[in-house]
Every structure is written in structure tokens, then in C-alpha cells.
Amino acid sequence: MAGPGRALPSGASSKWDIREKVWEHLEASGLAEFPRPVRGRIPNFKGASHAATRLLGLQAFQAACTVKINPDAPQRNARFLTLEARKTLLVPTPRLRTGLFNRIVPPPGATKEILRRCATSQGVKDYSVPVGLDGKAQVDLVVVGSVAVSEKGWRIGKGEGYADMEYAMMVSMGAVQEDTPVVTIVHDCQVLDIAEELLDDHDLTVDYILTPTRTIQTNCKRPKPQGIMWHKASPILIQVSSEMLGKIPILKTLRSREKQAGKDVTLQDEHPALANTNRAAISNKNVMAENTQPWAAPGSAPVGQPHVESDPVNPKLEGSDTITTVYVGNLPGSLRVSELKSALRELQVTPVRLSWQGAQHRAFLDYRDPGSADRAVSSLQGLSLGGNALRAELAKNQRNKGQGEINIVVLGEAH
């Protein structure tokens, strides 16, 4: 670990392992702040407000007219300082559901107290106007949250991929340039050595790290995402799927405009040659994390009852002779289905369907071929999630026997 404080345990072998160690350390050391628990979040920490004041000393901040800052709690003071400096503040809409940005517009003559309110999550809702593709925003500085970051500028988020997608969309819109600085605000204990092989080529990197005790300039040379990819494989572009278009309306609009401009916007999963490709096996290097939240959404089964997430391309998998099911046990009671899904994507063993039985501390994963199932067992066996070492093995019986009624939902749409 770089900087003062207790060192985190070494031996992290994956992004998820690093996340778990950071979340656990922040809670155990008393550094975690509301909202708690910090696990599964961009963590808030003691000293976050002071760390944000280091923005004022950055030439990049002083020169910026428009600053984009993520909506998480540890960046609240950064949002306030941006408003207090009379700069334009852009905050991404949650999970990009209703657009890309909200521009925060304080009322005329706003006092510091009102500006602080504008910087809260509720204030973002009450004092904002949407900025769409016609807004022609020019972003001079980007501030993102992190779970962990290295002094080389390599960043690990909470696993949902929205910071990477937001940046790639800004590139496609012309809102950021190759030299637009990216800043993250973290506790000193979140500054770690991160093995380069853990990074995907499209991962967003950072140029400055602000902690309660230090301002770190990373001098990172690793390329940032260079835009949206609609079909051709390229390691530094974010690939879009049909499913993502359904969940992120602004992506659909951006695609339509690029089509009108004469660009080939055929998605990879629309190419006839790829029609029979197992979409669940698409590498996490080419797919952004889907929208995931805890389950208890209106219309879904009560908490504790089983849920099944289906491949939206072929939801009728019941009775298929080609499906191989993997049993995953010893799930911690605090684990959310979104966290398991993030781990599966990161390990590149995404199933075509997931049956979540959190109350029984287990889940069942369906794969279209035995090879994918075997890779899942190998990757998941002994993996630490929430302090528990998972059990993973090929299921001996079909998932539905003895489970009672199962709620079928399209992948990514349950909360």
C-alpha cells in the first residue's frame, strides 16, 4: 500500500479480490463512512472531504470551465467546490437510464448552504437539467470514483463498468479530448500496487489521485477508452450489445446519429456470421457490465425466493439437453446478486441464465456447453466473496427439482 495507514493483505489475484480487501479494510479499520456498508459501492471514507480540497491546488481544476464528477458520496465535496468556484458541474445520470449528464443549476444568489445541498444526491435531482447529445458539452476535467487505484494510474471501480462507458460516450460525442485530465479521490489505503495483467485495455485510467495526505500525479501513458465500438473488435473501444441499447436509451440515440452520418453501426451480435455464437462467453474485455441492483423491485419475487435471470436471446432453456448447470454454494448472506454477476463477468464465465437463491446461500448457473461450465467451476471454486470461500461444482440434479416456483426475469432487468 502507498501512503500512511495499515497495509492491506497482499496476494490479491483478481480485481474482485482487490475490491473485497479494500471494502473489508475500510470497515474493519473504522475508516468507512455513510452510506454503509461500503461493500459493493464506491466507498465513502473519513477524510474524503479534505481529500477533495486538493482539487483547488490542481492547475487542471483551476483552468477548467466544465467539470464532470460522479454522483457518489466521497465526491460530494468535490461537487460543492466546483459549484462554489462557479464552474459548470455535470453529473452522470444513474446508470445512464435517462441520458448522459445532468447539469447542476443552483438558484440565483445561492448561499454556501444551498450549494452544499446542490452537491448532494438529492440536490442533483432537485437542481439539475438534463444535457443530451445536442448539449455539445465540452468537459475540461473528469472526476471519477474508485475502489482501488495504483500510483501508475490504473483504476479499479466497483465492477459495473459505467465510468468506462461514460468516458467512451464522451469521446464519441467529442466532449473530451485525448489530453482531458481524469482525477480520482480515494483514501490512502485505496492506493495499491495493481498487477498490469489485471487491467483490460478499455479500462479508464487516471492522471491525478487525491487522498487526505497526498496529491499524486500518475504520468500514466496507458491509453484511455477511445470511443464506442459498434461491431469490430478493438481493445481500446467499448463494445455495445443489443441488450445494452435497450437499457441505455442515449446509446440508441448516439447509434442512430452515427448511422445517419454514414457509419457502420451493425452490432457484433447482429452479424449473421455470429448468430450462433454463445453470447454468454463473450469476453468481459468486450462487454460493459449490465445494469445490476439488489433484487427487491416492484413485481419481482419477495426477497429470499428464487430468481432466474435468462438470456434475452433465448429465454426458453427449460428441458434443453445442451445446458450444463453449475452449483455455487457458501454464498455469504450479505452478498447481492449484482456482486455475483460482476464477479462472473470479470472472470469471463458469464452464464446464459442465473438462478439466485440468496436465502439458501446458493446459486445455479446455466451454460450452453460443458467446457464453459468446467471453466466456471475452475474459476469459482475457492473464490472469496464477502469473506466466504465459494463452493463450485457441476450440479448433480436439474435446477428446478424441489425449488418451487421460480420467477423468470430478463437478464439485467431485475433489481
> Radius of gyration, Cα only, in angstroms?
21 Å
Coarse structural class: alpha/beta
- Approximate strand percentage: 15-25%
Q: Please bin the fraction of helical residues.
A: 10-25%
- Overall mean pLDDT stands at 77
**Regions with little confidence, pLDDT below 50 for 5+ residues:** 1-7, 272-305, 309-320, 398-415
**Overall outline:** globular
The major β-sheet equals: 8 strands, mixed
The neighbouring-strand order within the major sheet is: 4-3-2-1-5-8-9-10
Fold and architecture overview:
There is one protein chain. This protein is of the alpha/beta class and 415 residues long. The strands form five sheets. The chain has an eight-stranded mixed sheet. 23% of the residues lie in helices and 17% in strands. Among the domains are: 203 residues, Rossmann fold (3-Layer(aba) Sandwich); 71 residues, 2-Layer Sandwich (Alpha-Beta Plaits), CATH 3.30.70. Pfam families: 5-FTHF_cyc-lig (PF01812), RRM_1 (PF00076). InterPro entries: FTHF_cligase, FTHF_cligase-like_sf, MTHFSD_RRM, NagB/RpiA_transferase-like, Nucleotide-bd_a/b_plait_sf, RBD_domain_sf, RRM_dom. GO terms for molecular function: RNA binding. This is Methenyltetrahydrofolate synthase domain-containing protein.
SSE layout:
Layout: H1 15-28, H2 48-52, H3 59-63, E1 66-69, H4 76-84, E2 88-92, E3 101-104, H5 112-118, H6 121-126, E4 128-131, E5 141-144, E6 148-149, E7 155-156, H7 162-173, E8 182-185, E9 208-210, E10 215-217, E11 228-229, E12 238-239, H8 242-247, H9 249-260, E13 307-310, E14 324-329, H10 337-346, E15 353-357, E16 362-367, H11 370-380, E17 384-385, E18 388-389, E19 391-394, E20 407-410
Parallel strand pairs: 1-2, 1-5, 5-8, 8-9, 11-12, 13-20
Antiparallel strand pairs: 2-3, 3-4, 6-7, 9-10, 13-15, 14-16, 14-19, 15-16, 17-18
